[in-house]
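Hi all, posting the design record for the shared folder.

TITLE: backbone redesign
STEP: 1 of 1
STRUCTURE INPUT:
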C-alpha cells in the first residue's frame, strides 16, 4: 500500500510538470519561452544582488540520461548559482515531445532556477531531417544567437549557434560587435568547439573556425565554454581559457584528451577574475 502511494505521488508530480508545460506551450501568443521565463527570474535575482563573489554554473549534453541530469541540476542548485548555462544537446532530437520532456524535467526539478541554453546539433536535428527542430527550439527554448548583458555583475555572455558545424560571417561580425563593448567581463558560449592543435577530430567545427578564433585574439575574454564532447577538457588559446563541459548525462566520450566523467562546472567571479571548479557526479 505504501509503495503504491509513493508511486502515485511520483506519477502526480510527473503529470503536474507536463500540465504546467502544456499550459505554457498551448496558451497562445503570450506563451513564454524558457529564455523569456529565465530572464524574468534572473532579473528578480539581480535586483537583490549582494557584493561579489558571484556564482553561475555551466553544464551540457544532458540528453538521454535523466537520472544523471537531475543529479547535476540538484547538485548545481546546492551551490546557489545566479543561473545555469547549458552548452546544448539537452534533447536527443529536436521534436516537440523531447523539448516538452526537457522543460517538464526542469519545472519539476529546479522550477525557480534561470537556465539559458545554447543550440546543439541534436536540438536542431528533427527526426524527419526538416527545419522543424530549429523552429521548435526558437518557439519553446529561445533565440539562437543572443547576449545576456548583466551590468549588476559586470558581465556579458555571448551565446552563438554553431550547431551546423559552422559560424557565418554575420555571426562573426555580431561576435566582434559584442566583444568591442568595454567595461564588462566577457564570456562566449556555443555547442561545438573549433578545430585547434589539440582538438582536431571530426567533432570540431572548421567553417568559420579560424575567423572565430581571430575575433577572440587580442580581446579580454574571461572564458569560452563548449559542449558536444561528452567529457571535460580545457585549453589556453591566445591567453583565453576554453573549456569543454559536456558531461551532464549523454554517453561519455573516452578520447585521446579530456576527462570522460559526468560533471558540471561552477564558475565564481571575484575581483574581475574567473575561477572554476569541476564538480563530479556519480552515475
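Okay, here is what came back for every position:
SEQUENCE:
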Amino acid at each position: 500500500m505504501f509503495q503504491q502511494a509513493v508511486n502515485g505521488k511520483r506519477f502526480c508530480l510527473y503529470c503536474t510538470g507536463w500540465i504546467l508545460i502544456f499550459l505554457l506551450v498551448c496558451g497562445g501568443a503570450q506563451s513564454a519561452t524558457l529564455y523569456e521565463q529565465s530572464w524574468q527570474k534572473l532579473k528578480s535575482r539581480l535586483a537583490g544582488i549582494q557584493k561579489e563573489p558571484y556564482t553561475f554554473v555551466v553544464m551540457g549534453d544532458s540528453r538521454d540520461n535523466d537520472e544523471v541530469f537531475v543529479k547535476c541540476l540538484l547538485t548545481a542548485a546546492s551551490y546557489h548559482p545566479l543561473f545555469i548555462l547549458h552548452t546544448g544537446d539537452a534533447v536527443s532530437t529536436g521534436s516537440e515531445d523531447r523539448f516538452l520532456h526537457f522543460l517538464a524535467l526542469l519545472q519539476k526539478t529546479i522550477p525557480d532556477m534561470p537556465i539559458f541554453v545554447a543550440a546543439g546539433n541534436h536540438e536542431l536535428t528533427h527526426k524527419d531531417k526538416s527545419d522543424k527542430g530549429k523552429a521548435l527550439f526558437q518557439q519553446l527554448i529561445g533565440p539562437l544567437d543572443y547576449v545576456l548583458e548583466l551590468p549588476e555583475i559586470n558581465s556579458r555572455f555571448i551565446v552563438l549557434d554553431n550547431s551546423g558545424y559552422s559560424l557565418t560571417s554575420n555571426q562573426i561580425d555580431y561576435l566582434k560587435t559584442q566583444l568591442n563593448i568595454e567595461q564588462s567581463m566577457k564570456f562566449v558560449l556555443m555547442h561545438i568547439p573549433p578545430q585547434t592543435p589539440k582538438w582536431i577530430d571530426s567533432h570540431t567545427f572548421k567553417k568559420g573556425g579560424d575567423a572565430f578564433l581571430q575575433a577572440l585574439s587580442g580581446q579580454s575574454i574571461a572564458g569560452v565554454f563548449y559542449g558536444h564532447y561528452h567529457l571535460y577538457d580545457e585549453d589556453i588559446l591566445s591567453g583565453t581559457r576554453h573549456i569543454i563541459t559536456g558531461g551532464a548525462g549523454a554517453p561519455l566520450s573516452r578520447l585521446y584528451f579530456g576527462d570522460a566523467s559526468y560533471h558540471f562546472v561552477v564558475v565564481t567571479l571575484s575581483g574581475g577574475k574567473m575561477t572554476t571548479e569541476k564538480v563530479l557526479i556519480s552515475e
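COMMENT: Confidence is low (pLDDT under 50) at residues 1-14, 16-30.
Let me know if anyone wants the other runs.
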